[in-house]
Design a protein that fits this description.
By secondary structure, the chain is an alpha+beta fold. The protein has 6 helices and 18 strands. The strands form 4 sheets. Strands 3, 4, 5, 8, 9, 11, 12 and 15 form an 8-stranded mixed β-sheet that branches. Bound molecules: manganese (II) ion.
Length: 232
């Protein structure tokens, strides 16, 4: 029997609609640019270049409905409303035509971002970890199994701050759809059950401050909410 010097961290997991069973999470992959209009607002290229990725630790997950303190070392804390895909079967170098079978379910999520740190990292050619992979940076709703709602390739994706709409797009606006993202990512990693993919955000990203309430929706999925607390 294994012994540990310190108790192991709690297993990260996500609630699942209609059951008390939870989806255990091992990795969180994020697509860096997947809606043309958002690529443009970030000063990037809206063309169909191959997707690129960054990661967040599974420990960064926060359930929808939470209050999260305004994070340290930023003055430009941004929301990014995203469709999240949960992998349910192992795939490696899978063709896009076969990739949908690896989807276990979907959730709505927020890729919270320290935009000032990201801009600095971009300009200096440095990694994005402190901008993207920080504590409590991955908000997520309950998962809905694909067996209940079918493939999600279209439908409105929206976000509001204090009731004022900031982001509106459609999943069909994705530069790379879910199957294409899974196919591409599976050429870099052996994807496994427990892997989440945040699939990118539409245009309209912006900053929040303590006291703000973010709400978001994707057709067919649970409504998302996050309250920004005072800094620690
Ligand atoms: Mn994002």
């Amino acid at each position: 029997m294994s012994q540990y010097i310190f108790p192991p961290a709690e297993q990260a997991s996500v609630a699942v609609r209609g059951t008390s069973a939870r989806y255990a999470v091992s990795r969180i992959f994020c697509v860096g640019r997947n809606y043309a209009a958002h690529a443009l607002e970030m000063g990037g290229n809206p063309d169909r270049e191959p997707p690129f990725y960054f990661s967040k630790p599974a420990s960064a997950l926060v359930p929808s409905g939470s209050t999260v303190p305004y994070p340290p070392s930023t003055k430009n804390y941004h929301f990014e409303m995203e469709l999240v895909v949960a992998i349910g079967a192992p795939v490696f170098k899978v063709a896009a035509a076969d990739a949908q079978a690896a989807v276990w379910g979907y959730a709505a999520g927020l890729d919270m971002t320290r935009r000032d740190l990201q801009a600095e990292a971009k300009s200096m050619g440095r990694p994005w970890d402190t901008a993207k992979g920080f504590e409590q940076s991955a908000l997520i709703t309950e998962l809905v199994p694909v067996s209940e709602i079918g493939p999600l390739n279209q439908g409105a994706i929206t976000l509001a701050v204090n009731g004022v709409e900031k982001q509106r797009g459609d999943l069909s606006d994705q530069i790379w759809n879910v199957a294409e993202v899974i196919s591409n990512l599976s050429h870099y990693y052996h994807l496994e059950p427990g892997d989440l993919i945040y699939t990118g955000t539409p245009e309209g990203v912006g900053a929040v401050k303590p006291g703000d309430v973010i709400t978001g929706a994707i057709e067919g999925l649970a409504t998302l909410s996050l309250t920004i607390g005072q800094p620690e």
